[in-house]
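Continuing from the previous page of notes. For each protein in this section, the sequence appears first, followed by its structure tokens. Read the first protein now.
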Amino acid sequence: MPRGRPRKNPDDASAPKKTTKARKAKAATATLGFEQQMFLAADKLRKNLEPSDYKHVALGLIFLRYISTAFEARHAELMLDDPAAAEDPDEYLAENIFWVPETARWSHLRDNARSSGIGKLIDEAMLAIEKANPEQLKGVLPKDYGRPALDSLMLGELIDLISDIGMGDTDEKARDVLGRVYEYFLGGFAGAEGKRGGEFYTPSSVVRTLVSMLEPYKGRVYDPCCGSGGMFVQSERFVETHGGKLGDIAIYGQESNHTTWRLARMNLAVRGIGADIRWNNEGSFLRDELKDLRFDYILANPPFNVSDWWNASLEEDPRWQYGKPPAGNANYAWLQHILWHLAPDGTAGVVLANGSMSSNQNSEGDIRRRMVEADIVDCMVALPGQLFYSTQIPACLWFLTRTKNPKGWRDRRGEMLFIDARKLGTMVDRTRRELTDEDVARIADTYHAWRGEQDAAPYEDVPGFCKSVTLDEVEQHGFVLTPGRYVGAEEVEEDSVPFTERFAALEKTLKEQFAQGEELNAKITASLKLIVQKESV
């Protein structure tokens, strides 16, 4: 399979043409930060509505605008070629476009945005779209816009705001802009919700790191706890950015939170991505919906250190190939569940809490030892802090593989790569850090070079950042997988000034500081004498 380097940011886009109104220009211009401007404008409209509630209001309307834009563009094409075909739903499904009934089209809602009954009209539109597209959208769309708690004036203003997105662009460009806005809103609401937001959203820079390292060009991609589907969106974007096309990868996932599952379905639909995303209350451990399938790439950000996952029915589960995980922590259950689903040539990237690299509680140390001895742990990456909305717990990336001697790459059996990326990243606000494109490329390129990919640069250990280690060395460290134990200290550039000169300069500075100190002491003593004299008069 050919490989390539990430050479450009897939989020980059040229600015669309401005509309005639200044307000629309500000909202619609796709320059750096326009998504943030749009989010802040929308956030002002929510007033006293909680972010956890408002996100469904805003995201549902963006979704409706997106599919309506795609539908109306195709409808206009068909009207020119064959007006009769324009009313045939199959003509749209063949192009992966949802059929949108007339009363559900955005133009209809926009024209009635200032109506006191706009909430009811939106609910009816959502119901009509689900009815017209039951296989893809049944039970997915929010349908409670008509409730009294939602101010109709606020809904009208939000429709006006969303109507401005991509105005003046081509239909294809407008849909791309809408997709970017949808993705940014997911992150914005995750930040606004704090800990709860982390349940449905993995920070984009973390997802890009996983995707850039695994390079999912073709094959099956799986996420057993998929949240809002960010792993899948980035995977498809990676394929398209590197010369592939939508559909080169087949997407599978599972999610136990029904509300989050709905967000994932909408997120993928906005991108025109087909996927088999399953939902059930039990979750991937108790009810593995895809237990007979194996996957080429697995990307996952399981909830950290889950303590209430165990059930007696899991006692003899065949997934526990390296040991039964402790009932009080699901970290090693997730790793083994993922390994169970990995194809013979598959690779996986998993986000876990840092404790997973060194914990010896219960059976965790023994499971980790067996995994290392089985030579399935490929690479460990220590991440910088403050990357996540939901927790300040330091995190790491595990990379697992079924084979370390694939065709076309070097034989790395008996070796592991450790990357310490804790010093990377840039603070984007007071509490949160992001990995830059350069940071992501540095981590990914190091991994590709170490694997010996055909178009990668030669690999070299970099003190303080990365080191290739034998399994014997890992054993000497008690099978602890913390990168800091292996990469050593960063090299410090040697000072070219001779020691005698440096010592003389330091001695001179010290003497000057002593003299200044004596002078200051004399002034203080004199001042104290004056105070005593005044008090005694």
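Done with the first. The second protein uses the same format. Note its length before scrolling.
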Amino acid sequence: MGEGEPGHRVPLGIMSAPSTTPRPPAANSVWPRLEPLLPQVTKPIQYVGGELGAVVKDWDAATVRWALMYPDAYEVGLPNQGVQILYEVLNELPDVLAERTYAVWPDLERLMREHGVPQFTVDAHRPVRDFDVFGVSFSTELGYTNLLAAIDLAGIPLLAADRTGADPVIVAGGHAAFNPEPIADFVDAAVLGDGEEAVLEITTIVREWKAEGAPGGRDELLLRLARTESVYVPRFYDVDYLPDGRIQRVVPNRPDVPFRVHKRTTMDLDAWPYPKKPLVPLAETVHERYAVEIFRGCTRGCRFCQAGMITRPVRERSITTVGQMVQQGLEFSGFHEVGLLSLSSADHSEIGDMCSGLAEQYEGTNVSLSLPSTRVDAFNIDLAQELSRNGRRTGLTFAPEGGSERIRKVINKMVSKEDLIRTVVTAYTNGWRQVKLYFMCGLPTETDDDVLEIADMAHEVIRAGRAATGSKDIRCTVSIGGFVPKPHTPFQWASMSSPEVIDNRLKLLKQAINSDRSLGRAIGFRYHDGEPSLIEGLLSRGDRRVGAVIRKVWENGGRFDGWSEHFSYQRWVEAAAEVLPTFGVDLDWYTTRQREELEVLPWDHLDSGLDKDWLWQDWQDSLSEYEQDDCRWTPCFDCGVCPSMDTEIQIGPTGRKLLPLTPVGGLKQPAAAQG
């Protein structure tokens, strides 16, 4: 649906008044109605299903049925590691089935509305509304309008308060679920933290409730979920506001739900070696590789990084398990690239042995290794040689994040310009000809000069690379993202810079990069302007009042807001201007306003394990440019996670080697290549 079509949504034939009858015992495939529409849309293959690794189970043999969604296009959603893991974990249970659904592009959405085709799964093309649980994994808040589109297309009432036993329970997860308040009106529940054990617990609760005859209806099921203290059910909490718009308190509205909801932490990653059978896409996707998560969590303490804060403590997957997963995953899928994933993969205590073992194992084959996230100070010549042993060099990305030494102290990104130059030269001299450098713009206390130092750094990278290699055939790409303050980080109190400030700094930076034409020609420049970042900031730190803005944007045609060609800043600004003043606040109140220490934040009742006083002190430390060490190798800094979550940091070295692995020549032909 285009921007100019507000109020012209054609309701689906199945969209009627909420029913109190239970959902049907069997779901019929919508494929006969969907198939004739596909020749009329772009990339129809993404809606077909049947990928290697996909699972279709007998509907009637299942007791609990999950529809899992990554709220973006197939090409982005299919490779998502979190959804693939949950899909496999659930389908391994004999009485449970899980199927996948993704956001449909506007061309198909329009046709689905015209022909009465509901939101469907790609596995068996079953209507999403017929499932027991509709699980949605958010890695970014810009997927919220796609969620509303999917709920409406499914024929599910948009507001959780209007749903009955005929509707699935909608559960949000992923990093954005650590502040689900902006979508509290639209989801029934949210899970904080790791999902592997959480989905099994939810499944058990749903199974038992159904076996008992669904006593107490939907309300009782949600109450049972809330009593776990690790599933947040917004309807059981009331929010009171102060006259100036700030939150006064968030409290349970019934005595049998907890005051605080805690995150889930899966401690033994070796017990969860997923995905074992990765999905192999039929259509082109953003990542086509076998990805294995080598550890979870990060204690580097980058103050802007929500992922590093909310996934503490560090838990390493053993080198033995990694080796087994790689062997089995490649054998099954036929992929030619192995991605060793984590927030900072080179920080694994056995990364050297891991890379050398895998490089040796697959030497002489077309299998390549990649570390999608590599810290400047953890990359060395040995690692470079192992990653390029087969002659294939995947892209290298380094993230200094801040252009100046001063701003890197503010954000606690402890890397010097000398470290960066040395690391990039190591890559160039080992055969790489292009590296990507990632920075942020709009960081707290940032000035124009801090940003302009990015140009100096990029120039020095090219000069040093040319000197070391004796060649001018080298390049670097400078990629800039806008800073967005995130919940559960020291910067959760910070103000945002306006889009005008961000865009002016980016303009000055581009001029500075190109000021030396000889060097500038070798430097690519990619950036996101300030407007999408401001809206992401509204959604990341918003409260329940922001839900009305999301709904208005969706009603006015908002879809795929993470895609620049579909994002409309004007649509968001107009919706905020229409909705927020009725609550006595505005867009700037949520974004460019700095929070005070004692302000109740919308997510304070959701426990990530981090002590709020510790976060505040780290925020003060950032303003004084004080650097905090990594607590893996130094005494505890009392962030609160380990004692409050009853967990601990888990690192090696274990002393174990990669395996003995079967020689590659003895491997079976990959399943993807079999007839």
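What the second structure shows: Confidence is low (pLDDT under 50) at residues 1-24, 665-675. The radius of gyration is 25 Å. We return to this in next week's lecture.
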